[in-house]
């Protein structure tokens, strides 16, 4: 039995790297600094070790050959999921380039709300170490952070020492929209977050009024989206008075039509603040199960984020039309590859087209795919790299055990070779 | 495998060969002397009438790292206009201002370049820079590690730690981030911006640390020198783009006390305030000062007219520049109490007075700096222009009548404000070879690249002579990388992976004691997880590490 310390996690998105994990053969136990997201993700046991074709166990070579044959016969293959490490994404894109596939990250519909803003007007953003040491006011819009990443506050707000703040407990936290599910946002000295609830659907109005107030535009109504304008004025005043405010949202949580306009309003508000002689930054929550990784690697390999296609022989980007679910539902795909090395619970959509799953061991399917190849999980079964939510820091994932499972990269490269 | 390149006209400033007809032999990747008679030549190329140079080296090009990838993501319209299809030997991708990684490698190689250095590797983002560069085929690469706005250094300076302690920290960071040099961007200014300072002059204090840019430059330049790193401190100065910044630049040179400094994209730092538009060329005075101060080297950062996207570590200046964003979208980031970045699309226009004069200032600089060994040919890709504009730039430098022809088409007031028309100098092929090969290699400390003498790696570019130098440099007849033919008639025929050039200066390992505590208290990553291991560079089978000795160290 061995104990491995300072283990980085690819599961929570916030890049915690202080876990201690006990390794007993292939069994893992998080013994220190676990949380409700990371502990089960690390501790999940290995069930399948052998690939299957048509539900029957085969060796890896046979599964790879079958996958290659299915892809060779396809006119418009689609690769979904895209939840793996940097090397896995490299191999995925090499395969996609070769077979002219569509590449679509499973979380892109959420991430699209950010990308549309980035590509239309841009933003001023920050990273976690800046938050930890500099942020004096955190405005949380439309997301329950502690459900998203349980250790966010402990790690990045209620840290004992800070470079530039005398007492981190004096930081202010304000929730707009969604209320927190627990007390993680209460500072160690008991200071509670302010909460201004409103329905998700009211956020566009609330955000727009808040931005107007930051810009000094008069609002004659008393209520905006159910929130008192006087309260929003107070938030605007605090944002202007803060030395380094941080406005955070999770694109995935803003699940309503045209939520990108809310992201844009917030991002433009941050720009406005920076033009009013103070500093402010945005912080996008995300980065779980390789979604930032997929977009980063796809970005440098093709120039576009991970909802693009190679079917013309070169990369083409369309953040709507290349949605894997849309293509499958419309009968525009004739083969489907699902790559998900992190989460056995994230199974592919049920489809009639030939399906190849390169997935974490332990997946259970409503409909058995034509080919299932269990792969190792980056950061558990093999070393690798994954991006943290702030998109700047890539964490070096460790190999914790010898499971004998192949890596995503090995499997996808083998399929490419077998074509 | 023995290759013979027969009868070409060789320009190899590293060996003092200036246009002599010579045979070159490459054995197993390296250039060798003429072998003894009985060794069989496996492959011979008849290069009679061709021009032969070493593979070119771009010593300052933004080809990898977070800001480059943000720039890519920001500009899908640019990529749509320049799609690159897959071929039997190459991957698909896209081009223009910030090409995809694979296309970056192909297009550099297709112009005869075999090496490129990313000049702004933030320690906290170094993994990404190396991972992106690992996906650039053919080229050798390396990076300069960006320091000077990082909290740890500023904290040490505020606490008046001695130079030795700072040297240890600098060396440790170079190891951890895998660099070949050290860069400073707007010294202390990126940090100052986070404290809401919007400008920081050479002698102005950072409001939190009380440290000035001048002190940071001196401290880091001393560290680089004392650690024996070949490449001088790579300096992106204060006040980039600000009219009148030539005085800051002159002051920077004069105040450094003879320490080696490399002033990068000097064009952006050579502006005066004369004339009706209060914007004028300071190139003559800057060039004269460079000529006099042998401790100074520069690269130009030439601008070219057209659409590009600027990607810089200088978040303070890029935030100001967002007013010029075209199209109007831009990104600024504060990063990890370590650094920052700013990405602003630019469209340089020949009928815009400022842009036209910037163009002329760059060319004046090239033509007025006497010693080609101390000036490198760059556009600060993609900030002044995409690297694909180099052949055009070479023609502007080599062909006076062409230069004057273009000059006569730019904004008329800019024409009046430049002395360009009166400068007769035309660069020779040998001078181009110095600027883009031998000089760049010497400046970075690459002993076996950038030259064609025996012992060098077989990075060789063969051009077909053409009076139109743009056409000549656009499309080499052959390019060899490590002795393998990768380009024929300006097209990729074969690809391989290059090496990553690094230095590993000595340091006192006890530096980690304080650093570890600091990481645990203030940062968001454990110290041991921060350090990039050698196998991270090599494990995907995409290259190797080449460690260059520091001065005083045995080879």
From TrEMBL, chain A:
It comes from the Bacteria. One of its GO terms (biological process) is methanogenesis. InterPro entries: Formylmethanofuran_DH_bsu. Transmembrane segments: none annotated. GO terms for molecular function: formylmethanofuran dehydrogenase activity. This is Formylmethanofuran dehydrogenase subunit B. The lineage of its organism: Bacteria, Pseudomonadati, Pseudomonadota, Gammaproteobacteria, Methylococcales.
TrEMBL record, chain B:
It comes from Candidatus Methylobacter favarea. SUPFAM superfamilies: Composite domain of metallo-dependent hydrolases, Metallo-dependent hydrolases. This is Formyltransferase/hydrolase complex Fhc subunit A. It comes from the Bacteria. GO terms for molecular function: hydrolase activity, acting on carbon-nitrogen (but not peptide) bonds. Keywords: Hydrolase. The lineage of its organism: Bacteria, Pseudomonadati, Pseudomonadota, Gammaproteobacteria, Methylococcales. The keyword Disulfide bond does not apply. Residues 44-494 form the Amidohydrolase domain. PANTHER family: COLLAPSIN RESPONSE MEDIATOR PROTEIN, HYDRANTOINASE/DIHYDROPYRIMIDINASE FAMILY MEMBER. It is an enzyme of class 3 (hydrolase). Its EC number is 3.5.1.-. Gene3D superfamilies: Urease, subunit C, domain 1.
């Amino acid at each position: 039995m061995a104990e491995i310390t300072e283990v980085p996690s690819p599961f929570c998105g916030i890049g915690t790297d202080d876990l201690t994990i006990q390794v007993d053969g292939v069994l893992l136990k998080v013994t220190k600094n676990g949380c409700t997201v990371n502990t089960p993700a690390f501790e999940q046991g290995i069930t399948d070790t052998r690939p299957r074709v048509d539900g029957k166990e085969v060796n890896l070579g046979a599964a790879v050959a079958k996958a290659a044959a299915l892809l060779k016969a396809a006119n418009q293959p689609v690769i979904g999921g895209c939840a793996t490490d940097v090397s896995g994404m490299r191999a995925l894109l090499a395969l996609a380039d070769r077979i002219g596939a569509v590449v679509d990250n499973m979380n892109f519909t959420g991430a699209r709300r950010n990308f549309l803003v980035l590509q239309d007007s841009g933003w001023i953003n920050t990273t976690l170490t800046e938050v930890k040491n500099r942020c004096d006011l955190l405005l949380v819009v439309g997301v329950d952070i502690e459900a998203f990443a349980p250790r966010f506050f402990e790690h990045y707000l209620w840290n004992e020492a800070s470079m530039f703040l005398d007492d981190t407990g004096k930081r202010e936290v304000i929730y707009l929209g969604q209320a927190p599910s627990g007390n993680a946002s209460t500072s160690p000295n008991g200071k509670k977050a302010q909460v201004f609830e409103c329905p998700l659907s009211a956020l566009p109005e609330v955000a727009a009024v808040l931005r107007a107030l930051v810009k000094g535009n008069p609002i004659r109504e008393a209520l905006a989206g159910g929130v008192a304008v006087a309260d929003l004025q107070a938030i605007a005043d605090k944002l202007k008075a803060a030395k380094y405010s941080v406005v955070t949202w999770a694109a995935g949580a803003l699940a309503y039509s045209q939520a990108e306009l809310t992201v844009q309003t917030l991002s433009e508000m941050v720009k406005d603040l920076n033009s009013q002689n103070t500093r402010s930054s945005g912080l996008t929550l995300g980065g779980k199960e390789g979604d930032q990784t997929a977009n980063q690697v796809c970005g440098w390999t093709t120039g576009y984020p991970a909802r693009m296609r190679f079917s013309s022989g070169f990369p083409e980007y369309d953040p709507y039309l290349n949605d894997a679910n849309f293509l499958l539902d419309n009968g525009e795909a004739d083969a489907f590859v699902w790559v998900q090395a992190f989460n056995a619970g994230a199974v592919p959509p049920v489809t009639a087209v030939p399906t190849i799953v390169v997935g974490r061991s332990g997946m259970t399917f409503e409909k058995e795919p034509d080919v299932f190849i269990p792969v190792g999980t980056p950061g558990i079964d093999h070393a690798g790299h994954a991006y943290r939510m702030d998109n700047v820091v890539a964490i070096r994932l460790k190999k914790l055990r010898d499971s004998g499972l192949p890596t995503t990269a090995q499997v996808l490269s083998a399929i490419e070779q077998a074509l | 495998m023995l290759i013979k390149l027969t009868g070409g006209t060789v320009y190899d400033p590293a060996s003092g060969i200036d246009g002599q007809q010579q045979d070159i032999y490459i054995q197993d990747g390296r250039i060798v002397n003429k072998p003894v008679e009985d060794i069989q030549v496996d492959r011979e190329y008849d290069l009679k009438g061709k021009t032969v140079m070493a593979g070119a080296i771009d010593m300052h090009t933004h080809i990898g790292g977070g800001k480059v990838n943000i720039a890519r993501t920001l500009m899908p319209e640019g990529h749509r206009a320049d799609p690159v299809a897959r071929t039997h030997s190459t991957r698909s991708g896209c081009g223009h201002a910030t090409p995809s990684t694979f296309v970056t490698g192909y297009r550099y190689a297709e112009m005869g370049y075999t090496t490129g250095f990313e000049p702004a590797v933030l320690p906290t983002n170094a993994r990404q820079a190396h991972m992106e560069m690992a996906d650039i085929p053919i080229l050798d690469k390396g990076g300069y590690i960006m320091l000077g706005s990082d909290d740890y250094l500023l904290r040490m300076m505020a606490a008046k730690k001695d130079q030795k302690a700072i040297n240890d920290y600098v060396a440790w960071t170079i190891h951890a981030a895998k660099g070949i040099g050290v860069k400073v961007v707007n010294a202390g200014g990126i940090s100052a911006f986070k404290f809401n300072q919007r400008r920081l002059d050479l002698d102005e204090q950072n409001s939190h640390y009380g440290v000035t840019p001048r002190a940071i430059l001196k401290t880091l330049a001393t560290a680089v020198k004392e650690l024996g790193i070949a490449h001088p401190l790579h300096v992106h100065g204060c006040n980039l783009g600000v009219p009148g910044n030539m005085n800051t630049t002159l002051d920077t040179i004069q105040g450094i006390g003879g320490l080696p400094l490399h002033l990068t994209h000097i064009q952006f730092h050579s502006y005066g305030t004369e004339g009706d538009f209060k914007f004028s060329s300071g190139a003559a005075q800057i060039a004269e000062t460079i000529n006099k101060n042998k401790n100074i080297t520069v690269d130009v950062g030439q601008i070219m007219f057209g659409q590009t996207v600027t990607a810089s570590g200088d978040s303070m200046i890029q935030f100001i520049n967002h007013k010029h964003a075209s199209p109007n979208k831009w990104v600024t980031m504060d990063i990890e109490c370590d650094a920052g970045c700013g990405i602003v699309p630019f469209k340089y226009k020949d009928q815009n007075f400022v842009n036209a004069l910037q163009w002329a200032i760059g060319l004046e600089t090239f033509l007025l700096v006497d010693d080609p060994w101390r000036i490198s040919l760059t556009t600060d890709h993609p900030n002044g222009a995409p690297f694909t504009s180099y052949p055009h730039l070479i023609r502007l430098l080599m062909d006076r009548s062409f230069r004057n022809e273009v000059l006569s088409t730019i904004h008329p007031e800019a024409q009046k404000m430049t002395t360009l028309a009166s400068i007769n100098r035309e660069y020779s092929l040998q001078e181009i070879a110095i600027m883009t090969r031998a000089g760049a290699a010497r400046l970075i400390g690459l002993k076996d690249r950038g030259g064609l003498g025996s012992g060098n790696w077989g990075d060789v570019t063969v051009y077909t002579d053409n009076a139109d130098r743009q056409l000549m440099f656009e499309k080499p007849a052959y390019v060899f990388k490590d002795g393998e033919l990768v380009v024929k008639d300006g097209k990729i025929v074969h690809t391989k992976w290059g090496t990553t050039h690094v230095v590993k200066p000595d340091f006192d390992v006890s530096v980690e004691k304080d650093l570890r505590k600091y990481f645990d208290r203030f940062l968001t990553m454990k110290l041991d997880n921060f350090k990039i291991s050698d196998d991270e560079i090599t494990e995907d089978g995409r290259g190797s590490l080449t460690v260059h000795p520091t001065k005083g160290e045995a080879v």
